[in-house]
TrEMBL record:
GO terms (BP aspect): amino acid transport
Family: Belongs to the binding-protein-dependent transport system permease family. HisMQ subfamily.
GO molecular function, one term: transmembrane transporter activity
Domain of life from the UniProt record: Bacteria
Name of the molecule in the record: Polar amino acid transport system permease protein
Coiled-coil portions: none
Length: 268
């Protein structure tokens, strides 16, 4: 008797479930849980990391990310407007900047600012300034393209209506277009904030005092004094404290935007 496609798909799905259960049971019975616990879940080492991992490392990670995001957002908005400008040199400058910083690893940007600026200009930026410029400089290249796309997604009729009311093009851009564009691009901007949070770990190349450590640097320093990978696990969990809520926020904003667009189409 021939089996229908639906039944065949159901059998395949059950077979996959069974395979996963077998693999889980093999791992449960064959793994050396004592060794795993010692390597990744050393309670004494984890206790020794608190409260500094929260009051120093997590706090600094949030601070560095916020500074980089604020600088990157401001610079990204300027670059986006330059990219859309009718003045050709502005478009060229914005395009060169965006393509360069999107194509160069963020680590090289950190190295260039931290080591290159003192050589070229005989000045040394503080750690906070270095992180802000490096993170924000790289993030601005990505955010500029996101903002540009958001501005272009705003219906042209909005600008035409504003101009018909006597608004100048610059005022219409600031009061009408940009606010609507930001409502459109909030989800991708949230994703960029997550990426900047993880990129803040690149500050480990800088010479920092202990009170300036972020999560990765704090975890590595603790790891060098312990025989367990527990510090790295704790640092990773602290990153999740930041990134998971941001991920849920991004998905909620996407759903809200989709629902809002559907309602507008239905009402229209």
């Amino acid at each position: 008797m021939a089996v229908s496609k639906r039944k065949r798909a159901e059998y395949i799905r059950y077979a996959q479930y069974g395979l996963l259960i077998v693999i889980a049971l093999l791992v449960a019975f064959l793994a050396d849980w004592g060794q795993i616990r010692a390597a990744f879940f050393n309670v004494d080492i984890a206790k020794a990391m608190f409260p500094s991992v929260i009051t120093v490392a997590l706090k600094n990670t949030i601070l560095y990310t916020a500074l980089g995001f604020a600088f990157g957002l401001a610079l990204g908005l300027v670059l986006a407007l330059m990219k859309l400008s009718s003045v050709a040199p502005y478009r060229w400058i914005a395009t060169v900047y965006i393509e360069f910083f999107r194509g160069v690893p963020a680590l090289l940007v950190f190295i260039g600012i931290y080591y290159g600026v003192p050589i070229a200009f005989q000045m040394q930026f503080p750690a906070l300034t270095t992180v802000m410029l490096a993170l924000g400089g790289v993030g601005a290249a990505y955010m500029a393209e996101t903002i540009r796309a958001g501005i272009q997604a705003v219906p042209k009729g909005q600008v035409e209506a504003a101009r018909s009311l006597g608004m100048s093009s610059s005022r219409a851009m600031i009061t009408i277009v940009i606010p609507q564009a930001f409502r459109i691009i909030l989800p991708p901007l949230t994703n960029e904030l997550i990426l900047l949070t993880k990129d803040s770990s690149l500050i480990y190349i800088l010479g920092l005092f202990r009170e300036q450590y972020e999560l990765t640097k704090f975890g590595r320093e603790t790891l060098s004094r312990s025989p367990s990978l527990t510090p790295i696990l704790i640092a990773g969990l602290c990153y999740l404290i930041i990134t998971l809520p941001l991920g849920y926020l991004s998905r909620w904003l996407e759903r809200r935007g989709t629902t809002g667009s559907s309602r507008k189409k239905v009402s229209a």
